[in-house]
Structure to design on (596 residues):
């Protein structure tokens, strides 16, 4: 029996979010005495190198023309095949849109399996904690089935670092493919800024920004700080920023060192995605906005004056410190 | 005669859209209203649902809307299915008032059902109903699990298109092109029907039930089936051991101006310079 971690790649490059699932696997390995293996798909040489240094027993590299672009159907076939090979008792992946899409399909494909989504803590080999109700409730769940599938909340586990042990690399040609779905294209959001879930500072905008033109006020602040841009649901729903920017219960979960909420009221579903940030700053002109109930530092002010002023003063500070 | 009818058929194709009726099934969950903050019962045994306003799960409401739009485009039928208690009929009626044609309530009698059981129940109903398409929410805003659609697709061995941002159905060719909201952008896939599509927030803006819609909904068929009658193993594979409130984040300080804000940021050592 063993643990199998599914590592996500895009165009062969490793998605760093996957490293959180590796950390969770290490904790699980310690608690159960099992070894962990990693499975990835059509990786570049660099990705292969990176993944073989994470302390896994084996690194499985699934190959096949139909695996070059992700589809849940084809990947589920490949994961099931490798899981059988290594007698996987646990299958883990980080709860990115990849993990969220893929893992539940495996529940149907792998006999006697069940899944817990977005694990934030491993209690023992069958007991896990996760959040429900937009983070208002912590649930402790027990998986009774023999095979256990876990998606891992990225912000709850550090990204696994290198270890000395090198994994044995096993290449597997996957023959079976699924005929009734076709990947067409991926239109990627282009941004010079750090990725939202990986940034140590996030500047997030809400409805208070009033007009998509005004987002540049937040972008200027983000650029001084080297921060990522995030948004509330209202801003994304209005089409002012792409879906990929949404922080919240149904969007992305972030936990940066510093989260600056600009013109965000602090609806339950938004707070669910950012309340584990180390320091939360809120700038909002409404002193009654719920965001102030969770902010470490609150400034009641007109954002159209306060944010540019903050940007200018931080810019000056940055220059003075030579940063 | 033969020739004539052929000609007529041809004319139909040429001058009118070919009528292809689609049967769409929409699973719907009753959840708390999205603007409600839930609390635990004082003894921690469960969620305090007394005095809580309920609604159709946000994402399922979007699924109902999308199904209705496809029906308006191609003709056909929209069937709403719930797996819950008698109270859930209230939400099925809302979907019927929005325009769905009939409802099926699989009555659990209040028994705890996990995601796998719900997916198995839906698979049974689908075997019976044989829809061309299933549209459902990507997750329920109560347990936030995001599992049932994908498990269901796996059980049926149907293709899945989750987190839909845009759905174009081609019923003649039995295909759907779906744009999906994924990390890093938008992904386009094509699935053959029947398929499972799960909705994301930007897919549409659900309509409100009209007054005539509400009146009509009362006459629409709503069938109740007892879950035990479906012959599914009802032993849960995932059980809830404990529910607790997370530690509350305390409100911090209010600063009077930008200068004081910068001082506080320096103190907290979170500035990169």
């Amino acid at each position: 029996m063993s643990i199998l971690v599914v590592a996500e790649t895009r165009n062969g490059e490793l998605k760093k979010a996957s490293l959180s699932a590796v950390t969770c696997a290490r904790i699980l390995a310690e608690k159960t005495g099992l070894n962990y293996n990693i499975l990835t798909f059509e990786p570049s040489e660099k990705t292969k190198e990176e993944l073989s240094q994470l302390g896994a027993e084996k690194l499985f590299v699934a190959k096949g023309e139909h695996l070059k672009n992700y589809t849940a159907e084809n990947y589920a076939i490949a994961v099931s095949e490798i899981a059988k090979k290594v007698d996987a008792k646990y299958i883990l992946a980080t709860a990115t849109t990849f993990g969220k899409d893929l893992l539940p399909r495996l529940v149907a494909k792998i006999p006697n399996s069940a899944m817990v989504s977005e694990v934030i803590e491993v209690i023992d080999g069958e007991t896990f904690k996760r959040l429900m109700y937009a983070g208002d409730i912590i649930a402790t769940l027990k998986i009774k089935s023999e095979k256990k599938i876990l998606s891992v909340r990225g912000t709850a586990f550090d990204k696994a670092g290198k270890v000395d042990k090198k994994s044995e690399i096993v290449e597997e040609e996957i023959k079976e493919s699924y005929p009734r779905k076709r990947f067409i294209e991926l239109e990627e959001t282009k941004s010079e800024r750090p990725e939202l879930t990986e940034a140590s500072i996030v500047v997030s905008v809400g409805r208070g920004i009033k007009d998509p033109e005004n987002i540049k006020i937040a972008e200027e602040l983000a650029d001084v700080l080297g921060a990522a841009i995030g948004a509330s649901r209202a801003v994304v729903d209005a089409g002012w920023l792409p879906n990929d920017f949404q922080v919240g219960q149904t969007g992305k979960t972030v936990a940066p060192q510093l989260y600056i909420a600009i013109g965000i009221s602090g609806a339950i579903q938004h707070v669910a995605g950012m309340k584990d940030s180390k320091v939360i700053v809120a700038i909002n002109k409404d002193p009654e906005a719920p965001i102030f109930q969770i902010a470490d530092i609150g400034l009641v002010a007109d954002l159209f004056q306060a944010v540019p002023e903050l940007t200018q003063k931080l810019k000056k500070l940055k220059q003075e410190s030579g940063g | 005669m033969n020739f004539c009818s052929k000609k007529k058929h041809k004319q139909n194709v040429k001058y009118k859209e070919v009528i292809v009726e689609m049967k769409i099934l929409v699973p719907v969950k009753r959840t708390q209203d999205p603007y409600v903050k839930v609390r635990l019962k004082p003894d921690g045994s469960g969620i305090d649902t007394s005095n809580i306003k309920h609604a159709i799960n946000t994402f399922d409401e979007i699924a109902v809307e999308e199904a209705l739009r496809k029906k308006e485009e191609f003709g056909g039928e929209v069937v709403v299915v719930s797996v819950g208690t008698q109270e859930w009929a209230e939400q099925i009626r809302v979907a019927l008032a929005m325009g769905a044609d009939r409802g099926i309530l699989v009555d659990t009698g209040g028994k705890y059902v996990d995601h796998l059981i719900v997916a198995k129940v839906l698979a049974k109903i689908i075997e019976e109903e044989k829809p061309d398409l299933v549209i459902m929410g990507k997750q329920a805003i109560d347990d936030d699990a995001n599992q049932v659609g994908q498990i269901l697709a796996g059980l049926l061995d149907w293709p899945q298109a989750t987190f839909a941002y845009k759905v174009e159905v081609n019923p003649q060719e039995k295909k759907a092109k779906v744009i999906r909201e994924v990390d890093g952008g938008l992904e386009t896939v094509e699935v053959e029907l029947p398929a499972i599509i799960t909705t994301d927030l930007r897919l549409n803006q659900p309509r409100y039930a009209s007054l005539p819609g509400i009146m009509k909904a009362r006459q629409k068929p709503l069938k109740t089936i007892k879950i035990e009658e479906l012959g599914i193993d009802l032993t849960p594979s995932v059980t809830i051991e404990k529910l607790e409130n997370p530690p509350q984040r305390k409100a911090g300080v209010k600063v009077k101006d930008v200068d004081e804000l910068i001082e506080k940021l320096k103190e907290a050592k979170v500035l990169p310079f």
User: Anything to note?
Assistant: Chain A has a mean pLDDT of 96. Chain A touches chain B through 97 residues (CB under 8 Å). Residues 303-320 of chain A form the longest helix (18 residues).
